[in-house]
């Protein structure tokens, strides 16, 4: 009997592995089909200046609508796209689409046009063609490099090596480099010595805890202080309440992003918001 239970368990375990492999293989295939069928869209979330909430930038966030239905979270499909390598084609599409929208905003709003932030995944940073791709997209759409910021994560670059070389090459082109989810990695401060960063995006976890605790305020203030001292801009991520916005402003934060100000929305709605403010 023990033998059978063991055999059963092994069998079930194998089933479970097969199922998850099949699901991710299925998702991989669906992603590829969806990409070829044009099922991906970009939405943009405003990055605002405190205290008045003027839109200074937008972050491009990708959405996948399988069969035109409700979207699947990028947190779910970006890792699969990274594993299969689809992120290279998808990333090129995101880059081109975001640059096209940035150029339209540039043409319509001139000096008031929002800077456009584009998330670049770890796998893309290992692609030696990325800097050339970015330079080509900028010139194809007639964009100044400083109008674009690439958002990277600490984990993608902390080991140095080719990913860090790519970031340096991107910075040499003149685009901004933002460290996303800043403060949550293992080497946040060390990275600032080696990585040519222009913006720190202070992770939502630090903002969530801003509720009057002197310790949390001290941490948020220090992160902003590091940015100031190094001549970087600090953006507070995931601001959900007016109280958080007020506290951030009091702590000297100039830029913020979060549902309190605006949800991610299609490009046309960013234009509406800019038109209302003009
Ligand atoms: P991220 O780059 O840190 O993007 C911020 C995420 O936080 C977005 O989720 C955004 O909708 C969400 N967010 C913004 N404000 C708030 C808030 O006040 N409260 C809460 N609860 N959430 C807020 P989203 O769009 O689901 O994206 C999740 C992650 O997926 C992104 O984190 C990024 O790592 C990745 N991602 C999204 N779009 C792209 C893309 O185009 N390319 C790549 N490589 N990764 C992407
Ligand atoms: Mg980001
Ligand atoms: Mg972020
Ligand atoms: Mg984040």
From TrEMBL:
It comes from the Bacteria. One of its GO terms (molecular function) is cyclic-guanylate-specific phosphodiesterase activity. Residues 24-278 form the EAL domain. Keywords: Membrane, Transmembrane, Transmembrane helix. The keyword Membrane applies. This is Diguanylate cyclase (GGDEF)-like protein. It comes from Actinoplanes lutulentus.
């Amino acid at each position: 009997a023990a033998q059978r239970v063991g055999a059963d368990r092994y069998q079930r375990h194998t089933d479970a592995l097969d199922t998850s492999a099949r699901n991710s293989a299925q998702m991989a295939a669906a992603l590829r089909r969806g990409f070829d069928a044009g099922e991906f869209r970009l939405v943009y979330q405003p990055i605002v200046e405190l205290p008045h909430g003027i839109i200074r930038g937008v972050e491009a966030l990708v959405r996948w609508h399988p069969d035109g239905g409700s979207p699947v979270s990028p947190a779910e499909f970006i890792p699969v796209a990274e594993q299969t390598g689809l992120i290279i084609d998808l990333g090129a599409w995101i880059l081109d689409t975001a640059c096209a929208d940035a150029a339209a905003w540039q043409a319509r709003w001139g000096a008031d046009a929002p800077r456009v932030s584009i998330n670049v995944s770890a796998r893309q940073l290992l692609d030696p063609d990325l800097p050339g791709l970015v330079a080509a997209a900028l010139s194809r759409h007639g964009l100044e490099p400083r109008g674009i910021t690439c958002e990277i994560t600490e984990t993608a670059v902390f080991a140095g090596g080719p990913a860090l070389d790519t970031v340096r090459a991107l910075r040499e082109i003149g685009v901004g480099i933002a460290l996303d989810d800043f403060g949550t990695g293992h080497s946040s401060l060390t990275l600032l010595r080696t990585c040519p960063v222009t913006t720190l995006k202070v992770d939502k976890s630090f903002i969530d805890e801003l509720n009057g605790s002197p310790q949390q305020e001290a941490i948020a203030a220090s992160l902003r202080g590091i940015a100031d001292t190094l001549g970087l801009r600090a953006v507070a991520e995931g601001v959900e309440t007016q109280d958080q916005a007020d506290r951030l402003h009091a702590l000297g934060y100039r830029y913020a992003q979060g549902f309190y100000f605006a949800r991610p929305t299609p490009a046309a709605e960013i234009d509406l918001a800019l038109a209302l403010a003009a």
